[in-house]
Amino acid sequence: MRQALRALPLGARAYVLCAVLAAGWCAAPAVRSQAAVPWATVALLAAVHTVGSRVRARWPEWCSPVLLAGAFLLPPAAAALVAVPGALLTRVERPPAGPRRAWRAARLSLAVWAASYAFAALRGPRALAALGDLGGGARDPGAPGFPYALAAAVAAALVLGLTATVLEGGVLVTAERRSPRAAWSAPLPGALAPYLVHGPAGLAMAVLWRSPYGPAAALLVLLPMYVCACGFVLYHRESAAHQATIRALVQAVDIKDRYTRGHSERVGRASAMIARELGMSGDRLEALRIAGILHDVGKLGVPTRLLRKDGPLTPDERRVIELHPEYGDEMVRGIGFLGEARAAILHHHERLDGSGYPYGLAGAQIPEFARVVAVADAFDAMTSTRTYSRARPVPTAVEELKRCAGTQFDPRMVRALARALDRHGWHATVTADAPQERGNVPADSLGPPPEASAPLVRAAAAAGPDAPGPSSRLSPGGPGGAS
User: Fold this and answer.
1) Other CB atoms within 10 A of residue 435 CB
2) Which of 185, 309, 323, 333 fits a 20 to 30 Å CA distance from 315?
3) CA 453 to CA 43: how far, in whole Å?
4) d(CA 275, CA 412)
5) Cis bond before residue 144 (omega within 30° of 0)
6) Three-class SS of residue 409?
7) What is the CATH code of the structural domain delimited by 260-463?
8) Can you tell me the distance from the alpha carbon of 400 to that of 123, in angstroms, rounded to the nearest whole number?
């Protein structure tokens, strides 16, 4: 154990040791006053939690209602012991195993202790006693009713989730050197949401535990939780498979077209920024982000010599490259989870005035996703430094988008991107094909001014019709100059 701890950074070692000592201090009163602790309840709940953690080791949180039932039924010091055996016996996938088990036990012990303490402070045990009297005995008329007990249970469940998440963030900061913002801000909303369900489930377990039906009835609450856990794991496996498919396609495009390496991810990010400003969320927001990432997948069907050509394209070569949206649509036709993203892949080079390709759609005929991706695509093309041009500053790129709004781009999408950039800024690495050791140039408003005479004819198909203006060699009649 000592050698395993030495493998961790000094700050992480100190953090883990402090957590273990704090958990021991919280549980110490139960060990000291053994007579006052219902050890049979502690042992049974700990056994159920241990079995549940091993059965569904990849998502042990499915049995969080067991921990919450312990927090509701037991004093805080005794409740802190319920999670310890399961945490110590659950399989650890990455070394060092000893410190990881000790950390997991300390983290869960402290979280359950905090939840039990919060439940007691909210007079939850008194409300639970009244709810648990299902045998027809006299009920305390002054005891809180079910709504109060439910509110106390949900509050305690949120305390458990918040404590566990905050403690986990500390490990990410000390052991993995993540920034505090990345460690705590992003995970909190998603981490706390399941506990809105776990709280009532834990309360149901505690009520049935104290009822004449006993612990056997209480354990039935775990059956729907286990079914949900199985569905949750399957969903995440499917999601991981989707992400792997997307990554493989993007990497294939990046390998083939070295001039636009990283462009796909940045277009996906800019598309998501626009989508949020338009009020999109959930599945539509994710679909639009994927649309931005995959918008150029059709370049896999374009001859590499055209994508990397240094001189101007002939009309025939240009017509070949203008087929890449249709190639892309054919490539992703069998990927059912893309949904609306397919429309963006096919139509992101259409123009509002009808002079785009492949079908010359105009105005509202162009799908919404395609109008979003068109703006994000052009913005990144203008703000990226490549071998043939320096990045334009963000304000300059936005002004160019506004100038072309109404003819090439949807003005609503341009305004949404401008608002998002004002609010969040744009911090993307560019220099798509430069070696990493040379460093990248940030494409932000403080970046270097573009060269006034930078010829974009060397872009070949890599830049394609991304950027508006004279540089748009592939877009028919690009605004600001002949194509």
Assistant:
1) 7
2) 333
3) 77
4) 11
5) no
6) strand
7) 1.10.3210.10
8) 62
Nearest to 448 by CA among 468, 431, 467: 431
pLDDT in tens, the chain (483 residues): 455 555 677 888 889 899 999 999 999 998 887 667 889 999 999 998 888 877 765 555 667 889 999 999 999 999 999 999 988 887 777 777 888 889 999 999 999 999 999 999 998 888 887 775 544 444 555 667 778 889 999 999 999 989 998 898 888 888 877 777 766 765 566 677 788 888 898 898 898 888 888 888 888 887 777 777 677 777 777 777 777 877 787 778 777 776 666 888 899 999 999 999 998 888 888 889 888 888 988 888 888 888 777 778 888 988 998 999 999 888 888 777 777 888 999 999 999 999 999 999 999 899 999 999 999 999 998 888 665 567 789 999 999 999 999 999 999 999 999 999 998 888 765 433 333 333 333 333 223 333 322 222 222 333 344 444 433 333 333 333 322
417's tokens: 């991107």
Backbone angles phi, psi at 409, to 5 degrees: -120, 155
First to last CA, the chain: 68
Residue type, 21: L
Q: Is 442 helix (H, G, I), strand (E, B) or coil?
A: strand
Q: How far is CA 28 from the centre of its chain?
A: 38
Each domain of the chain, given as residue ranges in start order, spans 2-220, 260-463
Residue 18: other Cβ atoms inside 10 A: 12
CA 132 to chain centre: 40
Rounded Cα distance, 283 and 344, in Å? 15
> DSSP characters for 4-35?
HHHTS-HHHHHHHHHHHHHHHHHHHHHHHTGG
Report how far residue 384's alpha carbon sits from residue 14's, in angstroms, rounded to the nearest whole number. Answer: 43
What tokens does 267 get? 């277009």
Kindly report the number of other CB atoms within 10 A of residue 286's CB atom.
Answer: 18
Q: Which residues contact 411 (CB under 8 A, 6 or more apart)?
A: 405
Tokens found for residue 47 = 């056994």
Render 98-149 in DSSP notation, one character per residue: HHHHHHHHHHHHHHHHHHHHHHHHTTHHHHHHHHT--SS----TTS--HHHH
Residue 149's alpha-carbon distances to 66, 125, 390, in angstroms, are 17, 8, 63
